[in-house]
């Protein structure tokens, strides 16, 4: 993937609708937070220290590429336009926190985008590994492998008792945040999602929206992650999360079944109406797209809609985002009206293409 | 702080007015602020986890300790110059040395966040070989206890031997 394509192609390899439980689980992600010894954390470091961190990470890049057996691209956030930076956020490759102050902030992506490193975000180094479907073990193995490479060359801030030292004490210990992105229309429509949101903290888990911390629940998409990082092994943490997610999946499937059994006509009508709007609308907002897409995806999963592939849903999750659309037009100053028109146009084209492919 | 306009009520809104006359900052009460038209709240300034941590940091400093800080000069991290007061403002730690500098005071906070203050996960191999062995011993001991409870004595004996071996190696390294 060329640098150009990174910003203009909506596909993300770990969001391709494949993987275990792919009809409900969009993706699984592992993030490790690491810092270098003695250098103040990014929120406290001066420019020279931030530059030093950047150099340190760049010095181990060849080793990381070797370990991954995959070339990596290193982007300096200073060199990117505002739209390009936002596209990376919309593709879930970096966080909004990372672009707040772009000086000496770099992002490294593996060619297949399954690995992303954020340098000088909240911590010196944040290693992220993503895969489609429900599978936290594979990305954890990759993350450990990369962590070992970094640690073999550089001194990591570590304390026997407190584990890996991080800028925010909520990440201390393992520095691990494992998260699973789920599409849960069944639980939302049967009004059971509230229970899950309420129970999660008791299980040491956090529920967030599509774009992580502090975002709304749109498009019936939820991210569930471990809240605790200290006192448990990484394996225990992902086991706990996987167990909870499997439980949620069981409930989601039961809810979908119930939806089909009880007011079937209403569900079928709702799905086709949503499909109709997406297929023919001339102007549409991002919020509306996500809620309609969710219904269409549910329709595909339930076998109501047969001639559209589920992958359209995953692609449009990125392609219908505002910054992605504007970047495609190379125009930062589009009015809301123009954006909504362009969005509708792109969605019509995506559906037309998907149906023609059949 | 009193409202800059009416000088009567407590100010609760900070506004920045930019006009041809230049930039004007004011602290206003709710009533006076309403006269400046509809207020748009900065959505990015919502609560973050650090706001809650600030609260925990400050409340972790119980009263007797507060008196202590008056008596002793404030501890400042020798590496990054951060003080405990800075934590209470930002909710974030300054550097890896801060964890040593403020270790004792952070411990209750960590227990409150995580329910534990002892790491049991991955360890850096290069710098932490010894810690790794110690941790392995802890894991084995736990397993040993479980085996004994389940009366699986043969397995338990094997574990005991493994632990002994590891401890011997550790002692050797120490020499």
Strand order of the largest sheet of chain A: 2-3-4-5-1-8-10-9
Number of separate domains of chain A: 2
How much of the polypeptide of chain A forms β-strand, as a percent range?
A: 15-25%
N-to-C series of helices and strands of chain A = HEHEHEEEHEEEHHEEHHHHHH
Poorly predicted residue ranges of chain B: 60-71
Overall mean pLDDT of chain A: 91
Identify the strand order in the major beta sheet of chain B. Answer: 1-2
Quote the distance from N terminus to C terminus of chain A: 26 Å
Structural class of chain B: mainly alpha
The percent range for helix content of chain A is: 40-55%
End-to-end distance of chain B? 64 Å
Assign the CATH superfamily of the largest domain in chain A: Glutamine synthetase/guanido kinase, catalytic domain
Main β sheet profile of chain B: 2 strands, antiparallel
Give the number of DSSP strands of chain B.
Answer: 2
What is the H-and-E element order of chain B?
EEHHHHHHHH
Give the topology:
The complex is a heterodimer of chains A (358) and B (175).
Chain A: H1 3-8, E1 25-34, H2 47-68, E2 72-76, H3 82-90, E3 106-110, E4 115-119, E5 125-132, H4 137-153, E6 158-159, E7 163-164, E8 176-183, H5 185-189, H6 193-199, E9 205-208, E10 221-226, H7 234-261, H8 264-280, H9 286-301, H10 311-319, H11 322-329, H12 336-357
Antiparallel strand pairs in A: 1-5, 1-8, 2-3, 3-4, 4-5, 6-7, 8-10, 9-10
Chain B: E1 13-19, E2 22-28, H1 30-34, H2 49-60, H3 63-71, H4 84-90, H5 96-101, H6 103-114, H7 129-149, H8 153-174
Helix pairs in contact in B: 2-4, 7-8
Structure description:
The complex is a heterodimer of chains A (358) and B (175). Chain A has helices at residues 3-8, 47-68, 82-90, 137-153, 185-189, 193-199, 234-261, 264-280, 286-301, 311-319, 322-329, 336-357, and strands at 25-34, 72-76, 106-110, 115-119, 125-132, 158-159, 163-164, 176-183, 205-208, 221-226. Chain A has 2 domains: 3-256, 2-Layer Sandwich (Creatine Kinase, Chain A, domain 2); 264-357. By secondary structure, chain A is of the alpha+beta class. Chain B is built from 8 helices and 2 strands; from the N terminus they run ββαααααααα. Chain B has helices at residues 30-34, 49-60, 63-71, 84-90, 96-101, 103-114, 129-149, 153-174; strands spanning 13-19, 22-28. In chain B, a hairpin with a 2-residue loop joins β1 and β2 (22-28). In chain B, α7 packs antiparallel against α8 (153-174). The longest helix of chain B has 22 residues, at 153-174. Chain B is elongated and about 85 Å long. The N and C termini of chain B lie far apart (64 Å). The chains are: A alpha+beta (358), B mainly alpha (175). Chains A and B meet through α4, β6 and β7 of A and α2, α5 and α6 of B.
């Amino acid at each position: 993937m060329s640098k150009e394509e990174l910003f203009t192609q909506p596909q993300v390899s770990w969001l391709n609708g494949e993987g275990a439980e792919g009809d409900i689980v969009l993706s699984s992600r592992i993030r490790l937070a690491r810092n270098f010894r003695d250098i103040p954390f990014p929120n406290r470091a001066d420019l020279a220290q931030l530059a030093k961190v950047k150099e340190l990470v760049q010095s181990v890049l060849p080793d990381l590429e070797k370990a991954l057996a995959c070339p990596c691209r290193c982007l300096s956030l200073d060199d990117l336009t505002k739209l390009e930076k936002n596209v990376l956020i919309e593709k879930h490759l970096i966080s909004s926190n990372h672009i707040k102050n772009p000086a000496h902030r770099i992002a490294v992506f593996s060619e297949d985008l399954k690995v992303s490193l954020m340098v000088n975000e909240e911590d010196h180094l944040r290693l992220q590994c993503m895969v489609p479907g429900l599978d936290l073990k594979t990305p954890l193995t990759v993350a450990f492998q990369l962590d070992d490479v970094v640690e073999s060359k550089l001194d990591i801030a570590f304390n026997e008792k407190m584990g890996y030292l991080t800028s925010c004490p909520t990440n201390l210990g393992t520095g691990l945040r494992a998260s699973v992105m789920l599409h849960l229309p069944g639980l939302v429509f049967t009004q059971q999602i509230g229970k899950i949101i309420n129970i999660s903290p008791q299980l040491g888990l956090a529920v967030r929206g599509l774009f992580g911390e502090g975002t709304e629940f749109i498009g019936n998409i939820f991210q569930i992650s471990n809240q605790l990082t200290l006192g448990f092994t990484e394996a225990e943490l992902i086991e706990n999360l996987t167990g909870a997610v499997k439980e949620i999946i069981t409930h989601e499937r039961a809810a979908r079944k119930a939806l089909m059994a009880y007011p079937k006509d209403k569900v079928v009508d709702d799905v086709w109406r949503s499909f109709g709007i997406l297929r023919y609308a001339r102007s549409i907002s991002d919020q509306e797209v996500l809620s309609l897409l969710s219904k269409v995806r549910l329709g595909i999963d339930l076998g109501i809609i047969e001639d559209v592939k589920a992958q359209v849903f995953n692609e449009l999750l990125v392609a219908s985002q505002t910054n992605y659309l504007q970047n495609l037009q190379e125009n930062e100053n589009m009015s809301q009206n123009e954006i909504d028109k362009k969005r509708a146009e792109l969605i019509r084209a995506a559906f037309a293409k998907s149906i023609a492919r059949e | 702080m009193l409202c800059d306009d009416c000088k009567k009520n407590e100010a609760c809104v900070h506004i920045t007015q930019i006009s041809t006359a230049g930039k004007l900052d004011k602290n206003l009460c709710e009533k006076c602020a309403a006269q400046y038209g509809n207020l748009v709240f900065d959505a990015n300034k919502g609560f973050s986890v650090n706001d809650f941590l600030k609260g925990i940091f400050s409340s972790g400093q119980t009263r007797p300790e507060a008196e202590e800080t008056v008596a002793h000069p404030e501890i400042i991290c020798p590496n990054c110059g951060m003080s405990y007061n800075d934590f209470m403002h930002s909710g974030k730690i300054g550097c890896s040395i801060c964890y040593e500098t403020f270790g004792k005071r952070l411990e209750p906070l960590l227990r409150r966040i995580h329910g534990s203050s002892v790491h049991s996960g991955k360890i850096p191999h290069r710098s932490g070989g010894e810690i790794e062995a110690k941790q392995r011993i802890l894991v084995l001991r736990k397993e040993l206890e479980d085996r004994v409870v389940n009366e699986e004595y043969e397995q338990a004996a094997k574990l005991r031997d493994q632990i002994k071996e590891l401890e011997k190696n550790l002692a050797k390294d120490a020499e």
